[in-house]
Amino acid sequence: SEPQPAIAAFAPRKFVTRRGPDPKQERSARTRLLVLTAASELFAEQGFRHTSVKDVADRMKMTKGAVYFHYPSKEALAVAVVEEHYARWPALLEEVLTEGYGPLETAEQMLARAAVSFRDDIVVQAGARLQIERPHIDAELPTPYIDWTELLASLLVAARDEGQVREGVSPEAAARSLVSAFFGAQHISDVLRGRADVVERWTETSELLFHAIRA
Ligand SMILES: CCC[C@@H]1OCC(CO)=C1C(=O)O
User: Fold this and answer.
1) Cβ contacts of 23-26, under 8 Å, gap ≥ 24
2) Cβ distance 84 to 123 under 8 Å?
3) C or N: which end of the chain has fewer Cβ atoms within 10 Å?
4) Phi first, then psi: what are they for 150, rounded to 5°?
5) What DSSP element (H or E) covers 77?
6) Residue 95 Cα, ligand 1 centroid: separation in angstroms?
7) Is the ipTM of this complex over 0.95?
C-alpha cells in the first residue's frame, strides 16, 4: 500500500542545504556532537544533579570553555540532549515508512525499533533519565509522551479505517496504553538489567497488546 502520510507529530523535517560544506562549520558541528555525547554518557550514568560542565569537559579532554562555547549552561546541555532524544523518532518514522508497512505494522515497527534504541543509544537513554529528573532541571524541557501518543493514535485511526483494529478498541486509548506499557517496560528493564533485556521485555508486551488491538 502507499506509504502512510508522514504523521504531523513526527513529520520529518526537511532541511534544504543552500551551499556546500564549510570546514569551519563542520568542525564546530563535530565538536557539538562530541559535547552532546559526553554529556549524554554522564547524564545517563550519574544523572543531571551529579554532573557538572567540568565533568563533561574532562570526559572530552577539553576545556570548560570549549563546552560553554556550544552550550551556555548545564541546563542548556540537558535541553539539547532531550531534544536530540526526540529527534531520533522522525528519522525512525521515515525509515519505517519507506519499508511500506500498513499503519498497524508501522506502529509495531516504530516501537520495536525504539526498544533497540533504548538498549543501544546513549542519547536516548540520557534523554529518558533527564525526563524523569525534569523537576530538578530549571529549563523548558519538551513535554514527554505526547508526541508518541499522537503518532500511535494517528496510525491506529488509519488502521481502524482499514479494518485492521478489533471492534470496540479505541485507537486513542490503545495509543495511551502502548505508551504507558513501553515507558514501563523500558524503565523496569533499566532498573533491573540496565536495559540489557529491554528488547525482549518489549517484544513480550508488544505481542500481547497488539494481539488485543488487531482485528
Ligand atoms: C514510547 C513511550 C514514551 C517514551 O518512553 C520513554 C520516554 C522518555 O520520556 C518516552 C517519551 O517521552 O515519549
Assistant:
1) none
2) yes
3) N
4) -65, -45
5) helix 74-98
6) 19
7) yes
